[in-house]
Prior knowledge:
This protein has about 775 residues and is α/β, with parallel strands linked by helices. The strands form nine sheets. The chain has a five-stranded parallel β-sheet, with helices on one face. Strand 6, helix 8 (about 205-215) and strand 7 form a beta-alpha-beta unit. The protein is globular, with a radius of gyration of 31 Å. InterPro entries: 4Fe4S_Fe-S-bd (IPR017896), 4Fe4S_Fe_S_CS (IPR017900), HdrA-like (IPR039650), MvhD/FlpD (IPR003813). One of its GO terms (molecular function) is metal ion binding.
Amino acid sequence: MDKKYGVYICTGCGIGEALDVKALCDVPDEEGIPVKTHPCFCGKEGVELLKKEAADGTNTMVIAACSRRVNFDIFKFDGCIVDRVNLREGVVWSHPRAEFPALTEEEKEDEDNFDRVQMMGEDYIRMGMARVEKVDLPEAYKLDEFTRKILVIGGGMTGLTAAIDAAKTGYDVTIVEKESYLGGYAAKVRRQIPMSEPYDGLLPPTIQSKIDEMEKYPGITVRTNTVVARIAGQPGDFTVTLKKPGEKIEFDVPFPLPDEMKVDENGKELDVDQLREKYLEYNEGRKDILSLDPDGEKFGAVILAAGWRPYRPEEGEFANLGFGSTPDVVTNAQFEEMAAKGPLVRPSDGNAAKSVVFIQSPGGDAGDADFDYAGAVTSLVALKQAKYVREDYEDGKAYIFYQHMRTPGLTEGFYKNIQQDPGIFMTKGEVIGVSKNGNDLVIEVQNTLLGEDVLVKADMVVLGTGMVPATADDPVINLAYRQGPGFRDIGLFNGYSDSNFICFPYETQRTGVYAAGAVRRSMTMEESVEDAAGAALKAIQCIESSNRGVAVHPRSGDMTFPDFFFQRCTQCKRCTEECPFGALDDDEKGTPKPNPTRCRRCGTCMGACPERIIGFADYNIDSIGSMVKSVQVPSEDDYTEPPMRILGLVCENDAYPALDIAGLKGLSYSADVRLIPVRCLGSVNVIWIKDALSQGMDGVFLLGCKHGDDYQCHFVKGSELAEIRMKKIGDALASLALEEERVAQFEVAIDEYDKLPKMINDFVDIIEGLGPNPFKGF
């Protein structure tokens, strides 16, 4: 597009009192760009002025006012590129000072009157002008084929609820269930934990009523005794191949082997089976990435509600508790199966099990830890199963020994009801061992709330083992993606599918696939029903977003998608391997094959590319690089003691909002810092850091989301990838004869705004200790 530029500087909210507005206006004036000021651009008069400018042909605007995180809907004009320069929170509010003095031109030129805050504001306007020159208006990517049909994997309580909720909104749904019946584990239980007020008693199973409700919707198709063989394509246009459990399906080989791999070491041609093995080896086990099944069914989104399986203790794992050596020591899942058949009896001899001990933590080396995959559900299940004992036998006794008793929300009422039962005894305690004494089991408990050790005789012992997500054993979704058929293990979630459990529940690492129920975490049926509704809404949102050509969370509504300059691609595969969402496949040469509706627009591929051939319409290597280069770096030619210039590349998800909050609170940091928001630290290309240092900036820091045990990077791996790249930049700094300490990375959560000033100022102190960049002035 032919760009007509305009710069608009707001003088409200203290900006006009704190900064020399005339000097700010001189910045675009020097470039021949018209500039206008107004005391309130977000007010009615200000908006009308901007609309008139747009109507008169100005299609590229730099609005210097408040943070781009506020009034974003007000400053949107059709057909216009708009850049928001943050003078309010980013300059004035975060760097409070006295009203700008009325200086003469001579006084302004005097280095003693040099104003760092004023320079900060002027630099940000230059940066905004540099950016709009290098970006374009995005155009939505539209699929050639599109479907709104939803696939639900799993026909249990979660899957049925998700299907019903989606059908209520008018979407066609197919339920795929690997068993020959619907209901999942809910069809096997004797009684249910309470799901509604007053939350004080057990319920009969409700799964049949859910199945009856599902049958009322003609838009729901049920496929039992069926599993997913493969899902190819992208949101809005998934191609799904279904099969019977155990059925073998071979997909076409998408591309041939190189000639040199068609023979063995002696030059002899390989037979068909050998070729297949070579092919799998060559393609890292990926035999079906690019080919599509012409007979596959089309779906727009997938809800993964595959459920869970009981934890299976390994041989000898709980030997101290008698498991494996004593038939009367069982898991809670085995106990539920027994209870569903009728009055409780001991497995060893069939006699009545009137005294049962429930162990909620394994003791021994595990200390106060619960069983693996356990949680609030296992606490509630113990309460429920203790009630079975009392229901079956008037003189029955149940004992619950726990380290953590979790009954969240209104289920506290159920806990209190169980407490009132005189036949149920509960205490915190560590079970040291379970031994056999004739027909009885003897349970030894230490460190109880009673302050003394306890010995209990019982007919049975029940271990509160947890709920293992189905995805821990099997990909289930079987994606035909470059990165494999399941979700990549990022080492934190024990097989659970949810990749961002705080900010974006239901989200998985694969766009268009939404997890619900026990594949996300251990859940009660009540929680699973609520979870199913959330996943159904997310699937619908994804379908409609894909149809409009815009991104889903967290950059909801973003119309951009990565563009590749393939002529310079070296087929290094870094973009395909590092993409957190499997948005890129590749061909036989390793050239990336984009799937735009899989993309979440994080820019990790852009940060990974050593050739810098990947970019977005409004966010690319050149746009950020130009902002970096537009910052004026004072040198000794201009000042006796030039101030430092430090660049901060700041993640827009947690770090940038935290900086805005710091500004709102009047918390100040060094005015020598220049901040550039980035989509994710994963999108940071090291060339930006090299450019900053080579032009004389004294230091560079990256500020982004935390990563680790409670990983919450909005784009899964961005902060971690950036940290890896920063470690590798040391060689580049050494080649420039610069200290490694000039580049650093910091982590912050959105609510840690109060820590930011010290974090930034401490880095500035380090840089000042190192002294000026030797490239300054060149």
